[in-house]
Design goal:
The protein has 84 residues and is of the alpha+beta class. It contains two helices and five strands; from the N terminus they run E-E-H-E-H-E-E. The strands form two sheets. The protein has a three-stranded antiparallel beta sheet with strand order 3-5-4, covered by helices on one side. Strands 1-2 form a two-stranded antiparallel sheet.
């Protein structure tokens, strides 16, 4: 399908991915998955990656938008936020 995953998060009961908004590819992906899985999606989101982050930088970039997913390591944070 040629879909590039920008962010992935697994848990015991769910699997979340962040992909580029390409309607043709997304439609094919959903068709392939819906037979075996419950598929839910959001549109109008932004993926933010900050290297060498701190709370002040995160707060400034998020700017009071709702954070739907967050992944942090020592050096990098990735945030999926509503794109208002």
């Amino acid at each position: 399908m040629g879909i590039r995953t920008n962010l992935m998060q697994n848990s015991a009961i769910s699997f979340s991915i962040c992909i580029d908004d390409n309607p043709n590819k997304i439609s094919r992906l959903f068709t392939a998955l819906k037979g075996d899985f419950r598929v839910k999606y959001n549109k109008g989101l932004e993926l933010i990656t900050i290297r060498y982050h701190n709370k002040k930088t995160i707060d400034k970039v998020v700017n009071k938008r709702k954070v739907l997913l967050e992944q942090k390591s020592r050096l990098t944070v990735q945030l999926v936020v509503e794109n208002n």
